Every structure is written in structure tokens, then in C-alpha cells.
Amino acid sequence: MAKFIHEIRDPIHIFIRIDSDERKVLNSRPFQRLRYIHQLGLTYLLYPGATHRRFEHSLGVMELASRVYDKVTDNNNIYNESIRDFIPKSERDKEYWRCVLRMAALCHDLGHLPFSHGADGLLPDDWNHEDLTREIILGDQMNPIWENLKIQPKDVAKLAVGPKKFNKKVEFTDWEAILSEIITSESFGVDRMDYLLRDSHHTGVAYGKFDHYRLIDTLQILPKGEDDSTEPVLGIEIGGIYSAEALILARYFMFTQLYFHQVRRIYDIHLKDFLTKWLNEGCFSKSIEANLKVTDNEVAAEILLAERDESHPGHDEAKRIVNREHFRVIYERNPDDIKINPDSGKLIYDAIVDKFGIDDVRFDSYKQKGGVLSFPVVTRDNSIHASNLISKTLNDIPIVAIDYVFINPNYKEEAQKWLSKNHDKIINS
Question: What's the pTM value of the predicted model, to 2 decimals?
């Protein structure tokens, strides 16, 4: 007897279930391509276990999105009448949007370039992977599948990409915005929940673990509350505040210990330098068909070829990746220097470039945007308060900021001696 519900074993969520109609999305060419896109780019060169792919992450996001949807739309979990009014009343509508949300979660990463974020910024016209995701979902290859599922492709695309990235001219209803928030939210998006848990598991960096079961069990749709706003957003019951703190702390630690590890970052830089020299016009195409044809496999094969061929335009970068001859850190963000000059990292970089040449020096800088994450919390007396008024921990989490100056290893010793003599002069200039 043929099965209608199919179970997929997963190291994070144990079982992920998908029905036969939904499985047609999983079996589609755009989704199967994600089997060949590493979740963490070249991170496996530093953390050997980081060989997991966008494929299983997307399945995990779908699983978590389903759990959150079932929780926040349960009538027994809605305590605010303004929220109850905008949730679909009929079971048919609820099931429709549940299917749309699941497929949006499954497809939210379809547009990733080879090696994921390692290739960010290499699309023309300021496009990004969300633009490609939108176009793939709305494209001819996926349309017959959406017709079979009896859902609108635009609904799937809007939830997958979210109002900030979809199209500024396209309006989202409150309902569409909250469903997209389930996937993409800065606070409780299931995309973030899954990648923290999954990346932690595969890299062996334990900081990404948190009690997502308890967190999901306490999620609610609540009025935003800021300036008496009734805009619906994801919030939590007071009993979930410690799980929420653990999630946001996990993000902070994973960024500082894994995502912004200096060696991981320089491999991204070498990869981007290679792609810029190898690709036509230095970037990938906006063509959906062209992008579906290229994965990590094609890029990795070209890197190996370039490493052996001194005439290849990307030979130097390929050699650094293949032979682990990556640039080394000569300077990193220093609190004492920042007090003197907030631009100390850039000053050091410019000075070292003047001394050793731009071809042998690289700069990597990032500072987290925004302040303390805030979300509504419903207390035991059914009053609603902003999380930053309830949790001291959330207010005390530092922002993530890095400044790395890298140099060709052939010059590291000389550069260290030079910098130690000139450091104070540069910072105080």
C-alpha cells in the first residue's frame, strides 16, 4: 500500500514528515540543487564536520514552521481578542495557509549561490539570494507543482522572502506579515532556530543549543504594544523568557565563536576573490536557468583545476584555499584602540596596505545593526510588556563587531614587527 505521509530522519528534529503532494516540491530540480550547496560555505576547512547542506536545513525550517503555526493558531493559545479577529476562522483557510507556510519555509533558500553566504554580493544590479528565491518560486519550473497543491505561488514567495526583501511596492497584510515572521523574524524566526541548532551539531560548537521545545510551546501572536500599537508580532508567555534569552545568547556566541571566526572569514574572502576573477564579468548571472546549473561541485572542481594551472586567473586564490595557504591575521579589533579611534581597524589596514601593497592585505569589518531585540511578553496577569523591560540579560548582550586585517603569510613576521613600532602613531593619527 502506497504511503501518503513520508518520514525523513533528521539528526536535529528526529523525524520530519511530508505528504506526497508536498514531496513533489522536495523532488523538484530547484530544491534538489540544495543537496549540493554547503550550509556554511568553506567552513569545513576549519570545522571538519561542517559538511551539512542547505537541503536538510530547509527541511528543518519547514518542520519548525509547522510546529509554530499549529501553536500560535490554536484557539486555546490566543488570549487577545484583537489577535483572534485576524486569524482565519475556517479550518479550510487555516489549512491553506499552513500548506503555504510549510512550502515557503521549505523553499526559503532556493536562491542561494554556491557556498551560500561565501558568494554574497556577487550578483548584478544589487540583487541578492532572496531575489533569486522569489523568482524561482514564481518561475515556470515550480508553477505546475503549486497548481497541484492548489496554492498561489505569490503567497509562497511572499512568506519565503518577507516584506523587507520581497518588493517594496507589494503590500503585506498583517496575516501575511506574521506568517513570514515565523520564518524570517529576528527574534523567533525558525530559519534562525534551525541553523543555530544544526550548525552547532555539525561543527561541534555547543554554544548554539537552546531549549527550542519550550520556546515554541510559549510562543504567541501578540499586539506589538509599542506606542499602543496593535500590530501583531511574535511574542512569548513569561514562562518562555529564559528560553528566549538562551536563543539570543546562542546567536551571539555562535557569531563570535563560529560565524566570525577569523580563519572562516578569510576563506570566504579568498573564495570571493577567486569567483570574481573566474566568473564572466566578475559575478553570477541573474538568469534562473544559469543559476540552477551551478553548485558547489562546479566551483570546487574549478578551484582544483585552477590550483594546478598557473595560467588560470584564479590560480593564486585557488592555491590558498586548496593548500591552506590563507592570509593570516595581523590585527583584530581592540577595545583600547576603539576608545581612541572608532576607525582604528580601517586605519591599520590602510597603513599596512601603504607599506606592503594591496594585493597582500585584506580587511574584514562587520558591526551588528540595530540595538537590543525587543518583543512582547505576556505576563501571568495577562498584561503585555516589552522584553527589554523584563529581561536584564537581553539588555546586556553585546553587539557583534569585528575588524580583521589579514596579510600574506610570507610577510607576517615582518609586518608584525613593523606594526608594533608604528601602532600608536597610526591609531592616533
Answer: 0.95
Q: How far apart are CA 134 and CA 184, in angstroms?
A: 14
Radius of gyration of the chain measured on its C-alpha atoms: 23
* Residue 323: other Cβ atoms inside 10 A: 9
Q: Are 262 and 255 in contact (CB under 8 A)?
A: no
Q: What DSSP string describes 9-57?
A: EETTTEEEEEEHHHHHHHTSHHHHGGGGSBTTGGGGGTSTT---BHHHH
Residue where a domain terminates, one of 204, 234, 257: 257
Q: How far apart are the C-alpha atoms of 142 and 398, rounded to whole Å?
A: 42
Sheet holding 376-378, edge to edge: 219-223, 232-237, 376-378, 384-386
Residue 245: pLDDT over 80: yes
76 and 197 part of one domain: yes
Q: Domain limits at 346? A: 327-429
CB 250 within 8 A of CB 207: yes
Residues 264 and 329: beta-carbon distance below 8 Å? no
C-alpha pair distances (Å), 42 with each of 157, 201, 256, 352, 360: 28, 17, 17, 27, 21
Asked if 121 and 20 sit in the same domain, the reply is: yes
Average pLDDT over residues 25-34: 98
Give the range among 189-203, 343-357, 380-394 with minimum mean pLDDT: 380-394
Q: What percent of the chain has pLDDT over 90?
A: 88
CATH number at residue 219: 1.10.3210.10
- 247 shares its domain with 110: yes
> Which residues, at least 6 apart from 289, have a Cβ–Cβ distance to it below 8 Å?
none
For residue range 105-132, list pLDDT tens digits in order: 999 999 999 999 999 999 999 999 999 9
Domain end residue (candidates: 257, 287, 309): 257
Rounded Cα distance between 41 and 199, Å, is 12
What does 322-340 look like in DSSP terms, one character per residue? Answer: HTT---EEEEE--HHHHHH
Phi/psi of residue 7, nearest 5 degrees: -105, 135
